[in-house]
Amino acid sequence: MTPLVSGPAHAEDPVTAELRPGWRLPDGDHMAALHLQLAPGWKTYWRAPGEAGIPPVFDWSNSSNVARVTALWPTPHVFRQSGARSVGYKGELVLPLRIASTGGPVTLEANMMIGVCSDICVPQTLHVTAVLPDSTSVDPMIAAALAEAPFTAREARVSAVRCTVSPAKGGVKLRAEIDMPAIPGPEETVVEAGQPELWASEPKTRRKGNTLISETRLMHMEGKPFALDRSKLRFTVLGESQAVDIQGCG
Predict the structure, then answer these.
(1) pTM for the full model?
(2) Per residue in 66-76, is it b (16+ CB within 10 Å) or e — as a string?
């Protein structure tokens, strides 16, 4: 079936969006995808966009018979402009979506606010909707995006993650020591606190043998004191063409 498409209507607009309706999985969930096509020279952002990026916001509440939507982000790229780092995609983004239904025909509807940047950054509000088919025919574009997901810690042979927390001005300093083989290209890390009220600065990353060391500062958005839940910390190690997704630390 052809997805219903809405978004910017003119060729000069920086981004267009559609929902690829995908296929039914053996366990009853559905695999679909959000497909963003960006004009030449424009980029958009990953779930953790970096200090220079705009975080994407998705609202699925107008969908029918949908219990949960999980975005399965492909490996992003690191961009640097005027000394600031952002993390995201250029050209296009196929973002796989795993949908758990409550039963009955599923209509997936998204209202989203994303940031897109060229020489300037502008927020874009987009609306897309599609009726999901009762079909098991795999969409190769979505399958290719799923194959670009970061490796899990086990797949990347991460053997240990140790965290040290110490006081810092306005928050805490977090040092993570990740025992793992190097991945190709310069390695960078993204740290997500897993607590929406906390913000993480761009980490300093270096390697000491088989150990990757990442240091960052965590601060409360409103400057309040906070308790850090180490089990919710998430580290993504980004290389030239690979990434590793690591959950929690000791």
Answers:
(1) 0.90
(2) beebeeebbbb
